[in-house]
Design a protein that fits this description.
Helices cover 48% and strands 10% of the residues. By secondary structure, the protein is of the alpha/beta class. It has a five-stranded mixed sheet with strand order 5-9-8-6-7, with helices on one face. It has a two-stranded parallel ribbon with strand order 1-2. Strands 3-4 form a two-stranded antiparallel ribbon. The two termini are 52 Å apart. The model has no long low-confidence stretch (mean pLDDT 90). It has 17 helices and nine strands. A hairpin with a 6-residue loop joins strand 8 and strand 9.
Length: 354
Amino acid sequence: MGGATSLIGDPGGKDEERDLKGAEEVEANIQGIQTQVSSLFEGREFTLVNNYEWFKDIGFLEFLRDVGKHFSMTELVGRDYIQARMGEGGSGISYAEFSYSLIQGYDYYHLYKHHDVTLQIGGSDQWGNMLSGAPLIRKKEALEGREAEVHAFSMPLVINKTTGKKFGKSEGGAVWLDQSRTSPTQFYQFWINCDDEGVEDYLKIYTMLSKQEIEAVIAEHRLQPRERIAQSRLALEVTQLVHGTEAAENAQAVTGLLTGIVAIGEADDAVLDIFRSEQPSYTAAVGDSILTALTETGLATSSTEARRLLKDNAISINGAKVMREAFQATDFASGRLLLRKGKKFKDTALIESA
């Protein structure tokens, strides 16, 4: 856990200086990530540490003598991300961010000495920072007359092949592991909406499926691409990994309602409860105004917009387009219906009979 490094900020991949985070915010982030890591690695043996614990008592002079002495300014200044910030047109870089690489290098040394860590893993954007630790370990061990062999393993950043953007980012921002930021249903839907071009890679990277299982899923997917078989399996596997089997199955069920795979009249009470907690809902009767339902659920900001949406054929009930202004008896199935604006899942409301 980066309790110390988060107080400084990694300059890698940033065009401008980061805003410093307060100690309380960093601590809150640490606690949240600790919960996530503990959940992801539940049932496995692991040791969770926070680098603030070994940095908080290191003096400045001690750090310069024991760590800074082993780093060449020529090498540090020559790194691409430093050059980008210091070169013509760059925004500049503070001494704090410039020193970040030394701090991360010392992290590796500490973990090597106290936890026998010999492999550091990170994205390709962390390659420079990871290379700070390996030579530091070798140099400090050599001073004690010992040889040390440690390694750094980088992986390419995952890129959305359709957009060319870093995977995990979207128009509305990032998808979060924290279910208070991204609900299990929203998380599931993020994965089920992945593009065909990248879904095979995502199955390999983000799931624990074997090579043979992935090949079988992709083969079936290619026979019926419109069924989005690969995306459905990806969504279930990753949601199950992050949020557990029950949450994943519930998310699958709610998504089944939103996509029309499962009729709203067939939904059970447990799934409806989850649906109500994540989507707007409203009570109406046969003959009541669809315009009012649209405004009350937030699908339209006003009656004028609601009327325009109906006129533009942008409103559907249970997947069928409507242009009328009142609910009919045939709209309701088991006393409920789904009202949607456009095609997006998030713009769907549950309407239940009065």
